[in-house]
Amino acid sequence: MDHMSPVEKGLRGIALSAVVLFFMFPIFWIVLMSLQTNETILRSPPSMVFEPTFRNYIAIVTGKLDSNVASMDITFMRNLWNSILLSAGSVAVALLLGVPAAYAFARHKFRGSEEVAFTLLSFRFAPPLLVLLPLSLYFQQIGLANTYIGLIWVYQLICLPLILWIVRGYFEDISPDLEHAYRIAGHSWLSTFRRIALPLAGPGIAAAGLLAFIFAWNNFIFALVLASADKQPVTVGALAFVTASGIQYGQIAAAIVLSIAPTLALALYAQRYLVEGLSLGAVKG
Amino acid sequence: MATASDTSIPRRRFSVSRRVLPYLLSLPALLVCIAILVPFFTAVFYSLQRFRLSQPWNRGMNWGENYLNFLSDPDFWNTLQVSLTYAFLTVGLELLLGLGIALLLKKRSRLNNFISIMLLMPLMTAPALAALMWKLMTNPNFGILSYFAAQLGFPDFRWGSSPDTALFTVLLVDIWVYTPFIMILLLAGLRSLPTQPFEAAALDGVPRVQQFWRITLPMLTPYILTASLFRLLDSIQQFDIIYALTQGGPGDTLMVFQVEAYLNFFQSMNVGRSAALLMILWVITYFLSNIFIKNWLRLRERARGEA
Amino acid sequence: MPELRIENLTKRFKNETVLDGVSFTVAEGETTILFGPSGAGKTVLLRCIAGAVDPEEGRITIGGNDISDVPPEHRGIGMAFQNFALFPHMTAFDNIASPLTARRWSREKIQEGVEQVAKLLKIGHVLSHPPRALSNGQKQRTALARALAASPEILLLDDPLRNVDAKLRFEMRLELPRLLADQGATVIYVTQDYKEAMALGDRIAVLSGGRIAQIGTPEDIYRRPASVEIARHFGDPTINLLDVVPEKDGGGVFTRLSDQRVPLDSGLEAAVGRDCVLGLRPEALRFSDSPDGIPVEIEAETPFNEKTVTLVVTARKREILISRPAGTAAPGSGTARIEVDATDALLFDRATQERIAPQHRGGGKSEAAA
Fold first, then answer.
1. pLDDT tens per residue across span A9-40
2. In the CATH scheme, what architecture does the domain A76-278 have?
3. Domains and CATH numbers, chain B
4. CA of B52, closest CA in chain C: separation in Å?
């Protein structure tokens, strides 16, 4: 394997460079764009030489955009806040519901447990609109329309299967004897769960939580159907922003950068667990 | 070591029976699960109705009529064709690319690991936002890709806004976002393969191209199958990228199932047809997901066995 | 310290019956060995007692109280697991202290209690280490210390020496009887090693196929095994088993080996004419110069430290092992004659594989196999 001809080495190098270029360039370019004024963006031919400016970011953060034409309000910070709230809330709920259930499925093969676990999993693969469209009508009727609670509940469609199946694997990897030993030593079921099962599955729970957060953050369709303007996360908000701001390309780029930065940062932080999480535990990283 | 009095364990006020406990623990998740089944069955019900939000007076059961209408509905056949084309093209191309990249990065070195981590970034970008990024890059006024296209002799390359190139453009975005998914799964698979067969083959002087076809590929098949099915399930339901980039247009070029159903619901307000479309998509994904789950479970057992 | 009584315990997993109506009693302060091949249900039985597994049928009582509905934490049991089951995220100290924290001891008392039991097991110097930093022997002692820490009335030891090396096993086999005696607890000790069983047990319960095949003192099990299987499990080298048909004449009951008379216990009259298996312990055989001895051909000799084992073959090509203390003289090779002690010969029914007990004066001593 190691004895490569120089030609082969060269080809590999070129192929790898092309791969890196293709996958990294869009992010690189959008970051560059976010640091430019509209004038430099619209130059032709495009050039890498420009004076970087943070005006676009400042405009978004302060919520005020003053151009020579008019003054405009930007509500994009609101979208960012919504994304944080929705993603964090969904993950918290999913952990609260999913971790005990994952434990039950891992430890007690009770009647119907596999069926329930699979039903939950199958939600992950069903067309989301199938559930979302009727829900959009129901939500109006039961007053959940345009509430965070309603959205967080629907976000469980993404978060819950993920947490259930990853954390279940981690619980299954803990020897039941450890828990037996702790209980026989005199501890209640609850304290055994807290002192033995939870800490030992800790890394898995953290990884699943992080991934669930990323998936919730990146979700588009749920909020597009169910949320009105003031509850929209960045994914939907950015699209609206493009329509509303028209030709303020620098701000659009800055908004996109702000929207993708958190998930990219989390992904790099949790990259050790990504493979396992993305495949729902089918492949160990 | 201890006196009799303090060998007893403090009793708690209640203790949960071993038989009830698992049900109790999974009950909350179960309730959420059941609550999600309600809209599902509602959708089934809608699909059997004549139901337009704009004509509430005209609502009523029409049983299979929505489905029967599809048979003579060119829009439906277009949707089916576009969805399948999109799904198979994306998965096929991503598989080839992903496998190629995984093979390039197979050897564990600092550089390879770094690159494989960097390649995760597109995958972690929200697909809707990725579509916006590409929309900016293909902007006719300042888009860098439009500029490149012009330099290469296509001054009027219109990317997503021309029916001829719209599919190509969304494919590019889909490939950009999801190739890393297939790549990291196959990379993990490649790296978990036992080394003995390769060493033996190398000793026997088997050329590397043949090693790939005879050893690598067969051993990698479960991973390839799982990754492809996983992607196929997602891809046939693709919404975010297409909606954010072209809203299914231009015309009906990219009217895949979910986009068509979404527009049916919110623009034409034809709930019945929308629900029937989604039911058909659901049937397709249901069969795919059954095959997928079988493969996935097998792989999961294996991964857990190795751990 | 209470008596532990197990009545008619039955446990099934899916369609497989793992325990099939097991009943026995462990008297106060006694150590009972649960002996059997792997898969016999020993571990499951222990788990039923500890409360980690719920039996389908049967009762378990401690000191007369039914504990079937008592959760594991209130059974007052100490248990050491075969795989140690040390909590990997806690230090050895916290592992050993876990039964004491459950009993809400004060910090000082816990400190004192852990140190005391650690000293007893000679692991005082590794208390601050996590399990992964311990050697196998230290892990095993930590697991034992944890089981003993709260001075439980019932102590369950699941093959604690299985996963430690031979030298350590030997040391612990010497150390454990004193340790268990000091505890005064009622002990059930699971093992697959017959020497461990003989060395540690007041009584041995032999479990086979989910049932108690025999229960008795080590002496009982060895001298009067209930079946061919049990006879084979106890003893090293393994007991010699020869197909015979006992006969009777004026001289009493006997059988033939290579046309030589092997006298049998006179109480075995009932076995005459039946297809039987003769069980001869290698150490119950000896070389002899007597012309009545059975002629054999010496095949091979294997010297061990404390004994020498010789493989001989009879005229009918039946292989027999003979064991004698190391250093005692014996014919080196060629032909020789061997002699059997009638009182040591065991007779089993070939069809049922059960031992045929000698009948003296109306039944004699009860040796019933459960």
1. 899 999 999 999 999 999 999 999 899 888 78
2. Orthogonal Bundle (1.10)
3. 74-306 (1.10.3720.10)
4. 53
